[in-house]
Write a structure and sequence with these properties.
Chain lengths: 156, 438
């Protein structure tokens, strides 16, 4: 594990009692995933060693929480919410447009390796429906076809 | 206790309006900054409490008078919940703020974190003092990373100003607060699942009892309250429980944020005085979009029963008002549906949500939610029979009440309420294999 990542994880570990490093496992996995784009088996093992956890306990967490990806997701993972509040404001049209434009279905990566499309559950921001996030961090709200086209252009 | 509550029975009934308590900095410049919060008297309440070493029991009584109930959905009286925390326990105790809002239609905590984080921090400080806890966590929903980062900044700002950490206001009182970033699991909004998650495990709810107040994080006494609940506390301490109560109605003290989404002109958060008529709030949100007619409303998030337009029209928005029409306040996540909404399509999506988010621990929920989703999908694809509708009801009823946590009940609620009120739509779909509405 590289130093930069260790430092970020240490900051999370410091939030908990010294004998409870495991509490930082979600944060540690998120940090690893943000670095690589997804979580490899090595990442899981590294986190397990670093936090003194059985590897299986780390894998359990990585497979339980939806925002972790155990397979590559391209350069940009677009997670679009299709739940009720977004659905009522025509998220399905945005999904269709994205699938057509990128020539992919959910959980597939575009040919150029740039985009992966994921169907997401409620993101707790329904005021801005329909919406999507890029790589789990940046949210784009009040989407329409035009805005989506611009976003795809901006993501170089 | 009963004498305290009896005082609330003679509340003057007045017209209800929008009134910002939790969102009172939202429209100010640099809403999230410490400076802005201080400009409206921020951190004066915890200062007063610590300087005068106010009696925790008196503060709890004030909160009981306010009528404040848990704003995350369960509506449990906050003052009573806080009194469950053992006073004489001399080990470590924790308080946790639950900002893991992921129930479809819920987005109020995000606004508080984004625009008024310091009021939340002050609310937690007051809670920590009352419950004598010295460490707290705010568990923030995974998908709102930017809000998590901004809350971390607010913590840092408070820490630098001596408002968090050791010897706050020279009183000898210590409190450390940390932000926890979730990673996409609706179930972690359930308080014991949230505790498991903070321990670094899968978010699977625990059996209760023991309740978190006796066995919480790492087995220590722990209090978990919703963001809006904590953020209401400083105002209550400043203005008194009676003043908060007076903004609401009997059994529903104070203000409550309703997050309105779906088919309205102006989706967003509206902090209302409890007891406001539904129609008034709908007007505030600009009415049903595109000049269409109202078909149905989910008043408090999908775990609260759906109500058709003609029933909700006369209702008031408070705990008793919504109970009277067979629904509930929930987290105030109001989803508006216009007359073009296909109820089968809507229920199919909600059922998928509960199937996807079931933690898999209890068989009735793990198997039942999948079964329900498959039946509704069959109806949607025109491959169902009339027996399927009864099967749907039967399976849902058999999930309800047979699981460790409330997710099972929540999964059954939309199915039962959608079919109760819009059975004809399901029957037409089964008969003709297509939507009744387009």
């Amino acid at each position: 594990m590289i130093e930069k990542l260790k430092k970020l994880i240490d900051k999370e570990v410091a939030k908990y009692p010294t004998d409870k490093k495991q509490s930082a496992v979600i944060a540690a996995l998120a940090i690893m995933q943000h670095h690589r784009g997804w979580l490899s088996q090595d990442d899981i093992s590294d986190v397990a060693v670093y936090l003194d956890m059985p590897e299986i306990a780390v894998l359990e967490v990585a497979t339980f929480y939806n925002m972790f990806d155990l397979k590559p997701v391209g350069k940009y993972k677009l997670s679009i919410c299709t739940n009720i509040s977004c659905m009522l404001r025509d998220a399905d049209q945005i999904v269709d447009h994205l699938k057509k434009t990128l020539k992919i279905d959910f959980n597939e990566i575009s040919k150029d390796g740039k985009f992966c499309l994921k169907e997401s559950e409620c993101m707790g921001a329904c005021e801005g429906a329909p919406l999507l996030t890029v790589n789990n961090q940046k949210m784009y709200e009040h989407l329409d076809v035009k805005k989506v086209d611009q976003l795809l252009k901006d993501l170089k | 206790m009963n004498e305290i509550l009896d005082k609330n029975l003679n509340l003057e009934i007045k017209n209800k309006q929008l009134f910002n308590i939790c969102l009172r900095t939202k429209h100010l410049k640099n809403s999230s900054s410490l400076e802005t919060y201080k400009s409206i008297g921020g951190y004066e309440q915890i200062k007063k409490i610590l300087k005068n070493k106010l009696d925790p029991q008196q503060l709890i009584d004030e909160i009981k008078i306010s009528g404040l109930r848990g704003r995350g959905g369960a509506g449990f009286p906050t003052g009573i919940k806080w009194s469950f925390m053992p006073r004489d326990y001399d080990g470590i105790k924790y308080i946790v703020c639950n900002s893991d809002e992921g129930e479809p239609g819920t987005f109020k905590d995000r606004d508080i974190i984004c625009h008024n984080p310091h009021q939340l921090i002050e609310g937690m400080l007051i809670g920590a003092y009352i419950m004598n806890a010295h460490v707290g966590y705010n568990y923030i929903h995974g998908e709102i990373w930017e809000e998590y980062v901004s809350f971390e900044k607010a913590i840092e700002e408070a820490r630098k100003a001596g408002l968090l950490g050791k010897n706050i206001f020279g009183s000898g009182f210590n409190f450390e607060l940390h932000a926890f970033h979730g990673y996409g699991a609706y179930i972690c909004g359930e308080e014991t699942a949230l505790i498991e998650s903070i321990e670094g495990k899968k978010g699977q709810p625990r059996y209760k009892p023991p309740f978190p107040a006796t066995y919480g994080i790492y087995g220590k006494p722990t209090n978990v309250n919703n963001t809006e609940t904590y953020a209401s506390i400083p105002w209550i301490i400043e203005n008194g429980g009676q003043a908060f109560m007076a903004h609401g109605v009997k059994n529903s003290g104070g203000t409550k944020i309703f997050s309105i989404s779906g088919h309205v002109e102006k989706p967003g958060n509206y902090e209302i005085e409890l007891g406001m008529p539904f129609e008034q709030l709908l007007n505030e949100a600009g009415g049903v979009w595109k000049g269409r007619k109202l078909k149905a409303v989910i008043p408090g998030g999908p775990s609260t029963p759906l109500v058709p337009a003609d029933i909700i029209r006369g209702a008031t928005l408070d705990y008793d008002g919504l109970a009277k029409i067979g629904s509930s306040v929930g987290a105030g996540s109001m989803i508006i549906m216009d007359d073009t909404t296909c109820m089968v399509t809507a229920l199919k999506r909600l059922s998928y949500f509960f199937y996807e988010e079931s933690c898999g621990q209890c068989t009735p929920c793990r198997e039942g939610t999948g079964w329900v989703y498959r039946i509704i999908s069959r109806i949607y694809q025109g491959q169902a029979t009339h027996e399927d509708l009864d099967l749907l009801t039967d399976v849902s009823k058999k999930i309800s009440g047979r699981t460790i946590c409330a997710l099972g009940d929540s999964a059954a609620t939309p199915v039962l309420s959608f079919i109760k009120h819009f059975r004809d739509e399901f029957e037409v779909f089964i008969k003709n294999g297509k939507k009744l509405v387009n």
